[in-house]
Design a protein that fits this description.
Elements: E1 3-11, E2 16-25, E3 28-34, E4 43-46, E5 51-52, E6 56-61, H1 69-82, E7 85-91, H2 102-112, E8 116-120
Parallel strand pairs: 1-4, 1-5, 6-7, 7-8
Antiparallel strand pairs: 1-2, 2-3
Length: about 120
């Protein structure tokens, strides 16, 4: 195991489960147990009884509506990360065809976003 998070309170849609240990290999959660067999890992993070929440998804944003797209991607994805949002879906609002500027949106997003982003257009 690469990392374990111990002594946390796991928040699910149905309940809060105390005494949780989460095992992580690479970037993938591979184990969730409550007061189970002690796990060994390269890194141990003690949650000190704090809450552990899954990443939140913001499924409707409009970056670049009032400020330049680059500025919004940088500032708003940082703000999202600090608020526990791990994924943002950006609605591209363009006059005319999106294909003319699609590469711009893709490259700017790859370069500046600090959370996972998806681009979509109505």
């Amino acid at each position: 195991m690469d990392t374990i998070i111990t002594n946390g309170k796991l928040v699910t849609p149905w309940e809060i489960i105390e005494g949780i240990t989460i095992g992580i290999e690479g970037k993938k959660i591979v184990s969730v147990q409550q007061d189970g067999i002690p796990l060994k890992a390269k890194q141990v993070i003690n949650a000190h009884g704090n809450y552990i929440l899954p990443g939140i998804i913001d499924c409707h944003t409009h970056f670049g509506a009032f400020l330049p797209y680059e500025d919004d991607v940088l500032s708003e994805t940082w703000a999202a990360a600090f608020g526990g949002i791990t994924t943002v879906f950006h609605v591209i609002l363009e006059q005319g065809s999106i294909f003319d500027r699609l590469n711009y949106y893709i490259e700017t997003t790859k370069r500046l976003a600090t959370v996972d982003m998806s681009l979509w257009t109505p």
